[in-house]
Amino acid sequence: MESQANEAVLATQAALAQASRLAVQYSFSIIGALLLLLAGWWLSSLLSRWTHRGLLRVRGIDETLARFFANVVRYGALLLVFVTVLAQFGVQTASIIATLGAAGLAIGLALQGTLQNIAAGIMLLVLRPFRVGEYIDTGAISGTIIEIGLFATELRTPDGLYRLAPNSTLWNVPITNFSREATRRFEFKIGIGYDDDIDLAEGIMRDHAESDPRVLKDPPVTTHVDQLADSAVVLTLWYWTKSSDFWPTSREMIKKVKKSFEQNEISIPFPQVTYHGPKPLVALAERLTEAPEDR
User: Under a CB-based contact definition with an 8 Å cutoff, are residues 269 and 191 in contact?
Assistant: First the structure.
């Protein structure tokens, strides 16, 4: 009995010594891991701030894009710290990295459409085909830009409606930006009768354009005969204005030219058809087009 008691005491002492060694060993590992986590957290925040400030100094980098890359740097650094901490406890990091890679691939396949919008959003923020406040048209989508996000772009239509467009739908199509250039050319076509004075009509169009203070002097105002159509001689007026004056100037110009043509008895003919045939039929057609009191 005494020998068994001694063996039990010795076994207990050995277990306590082993536990003490393990406690000392893992206590240092735990303390090192905590210090590593605190240092990694501080370093990741510092790298994130440096990245954000550095990108903002680059011309053409948007605030949203700078913040996105700053977060990528931060969480990437934290992931590296987490793997390093696990290595402190003897965990095989190769298997963890392989698992993270497989998980990233699965998430990427599941969120393929979302990642496509993010990639398109990054390209839109870097290349800047449009900015906030500019009016664009893609054929299917048009409106004034409210905000450009990583996933979608917010627009306001001319009739005051809110529209949210995924970035991939804006990146993969041609974009017409009506606000990017400082000046725009207005092209006004109008048809006059074949019997009307072409020089007089062109002079009226030029006078209205040149007398408007919003019309630029350079390039100069020009007019020309565009085509000899079936029912009219088509005249074209070209002039340049600031992009902000384009719409009000063009609407007023059309109204002024129409009124001046009426005052100078310059006709704007409707589509006409001339009939060539036997004289009796021509006489009958003329007779039918006369007013009842003239018959």
Answer: yes
Q: How far apart are CA 45 and CA 74, in angstroms?
A: 6
pLDDT digits (tens, 9 = 90+) for 143-197: 999 988 878 899 999 888 999 999 888 888 899 999 889 999 999 999 999 999 9
Measured from the Cβ of residue 34, the count of other Cβ atoms closer than 10 Å reads 11
Pick the most confident of 28-37, 72-81, 89-98, 208-217: 208-217
Q: Identity (one letter) of the amino acid at 232?
A: A
Please state, in angstroms and rounded to a whole number, the distance separating the CA atoms of residues 80 and 97: 10
CA distance 147 to 219: 35
Confidence of residue 43 (pLDDT cuts 50, 70, 90): confident
Residues 6+ apart with CB under 8 A from 81: 36, 37, 39, 40, 41, 43, 44
Q: Which residues contact 185 (CB under 8 A, 6 or more apart)?
A: 219, 238, 239, 240
In this structure, how many other beta carbons lie within 10 angstroms of the beta carbon of residue 208? Answer: 22
Its CATH architecture, for the domain 2-110, is Orthogonal Bundle (1.10)
Instruction: Name the class of domain 183-263.
Output: alpha beta
CATH class belonging to 130-177: mainly beta
Is the fold of 2-110 the same as that of 183-263? no
Domains of the chain, residue spans: 2-110, 130-177, 183-263
Taking Cα atoms as reference points, which of 190, 145, 184 lies closest to residue 167? 145
